[in-house]
């Protein structure tokens, strides 16, 4: 099957350059940035001090620093927050106007495999010849069962582990301190993970964001974003079994294959 290629107009780039670029970001983000090499890409997040997810991003190694791949409508906000943290660090922060492109189902030539899951395909910076629309990529992402943290997580609404960052290579628990590290490490260590974002299937159009998912008469979760026949929902892990409904329609919460490699207990504990 020939790989499809789409330009993601929902994403934008920030260049962080200068001699302190990598240590500066290493101390802020959930991912190890100091060992990043040019051309490599890693998935990461920037959290609030209490540990909630503010920004999801891909960090690309560059010869003069790093390039951040972020939600386009959040780029200015992220640049402002990075500038707030900059202090005396020798870094320059500015917009990079190259587009972000993806390929799927595989990693096309000139693309780098998505660091979250190989099944997501590849990512590339700079213009490529598009053979598909972004909506097709979004459908593929939902089929794989991976949340879009910006759309599904909102701003300062959820913890990164609830968005499966720990299962999608978005957190390096060995790197030491980062903003929000204490809460994130405690959730991982103590198994305090009661909810996760999971794909939800049903018949018909997607319910509005925030619509309750019920297990009998008990609230089991809420719909975040979706499309015909499926959505991402934030689900309580102790209420997945039983009869699920949304707007009176039968629904099923699905553990994607990349999540089912671990036991339910391991999923709940991260």
From TrEMBL:
Residues 194-260 form the CAF17 C-terminal domain. Pfam families: Beta-barrel_CAF17_C (PF25455). Keywords: Transit peptide. It comes from the Bacteria. One of its GO terms (biological process) is iron-sulfur cluster assembly. This is Glycine cleavage system protein T. It comes from Brevundimonas subvibrioides.
């Amino acid at each position: 099957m020939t790989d499809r290629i789409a330009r993601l107009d929902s994403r934008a780039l920030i260049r962080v350059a200068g001699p302190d670029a990598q240590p500066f970001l290493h101390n802020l983000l959930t991912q190890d940035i100091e060992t990043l090499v040019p051309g490599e890409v890693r998935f990461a997040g920037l959290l609030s001090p209490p540990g909630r997810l503010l920004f999801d991003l891909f960090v690309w190694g560059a010869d003069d620093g790093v390039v951040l791949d972020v939600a386009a409508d959040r780029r200015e906000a992220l640049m402002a927050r990075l500038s707030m943290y900059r202090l005396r660090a020798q870094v320059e922060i500015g917009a990079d106007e190259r587009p972000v492109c993806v390929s799927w189902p595989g990693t096309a030539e000139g693309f780098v495999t998505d660091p979250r899951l190989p099944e997501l395909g590849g990512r590339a910076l700079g213009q490529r010849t598009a053979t598909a629309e972004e909506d097709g990529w979004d459908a593929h992402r939902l089929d794989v069962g991976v949340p879009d943290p910006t759309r599904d997580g909102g701003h300062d609404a959820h913890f990164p582990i609830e968005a499966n960052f720990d299962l999608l290579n978005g957190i390096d628990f060995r790197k030491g301190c980062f903003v929000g590290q204490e809460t994130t490490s405690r959730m991982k260590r103590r198994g305090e993970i009661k909810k996760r974002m999971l794909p939800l299937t049903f018949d018909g159009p997607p319910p509005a964001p925030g619509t309750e998912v019920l297990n009998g008469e008990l609230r089991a979760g809420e719909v975040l974003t979706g499309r015909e026949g499926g959505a991402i929902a934030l689900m309580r892990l102790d209420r997945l079994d039983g009869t699920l409904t949304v707007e009176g329609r039968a629904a099923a919460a699905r553990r994607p294959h990349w999540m089912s490699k671990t036991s339910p207990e391991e999923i709940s504990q991260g």
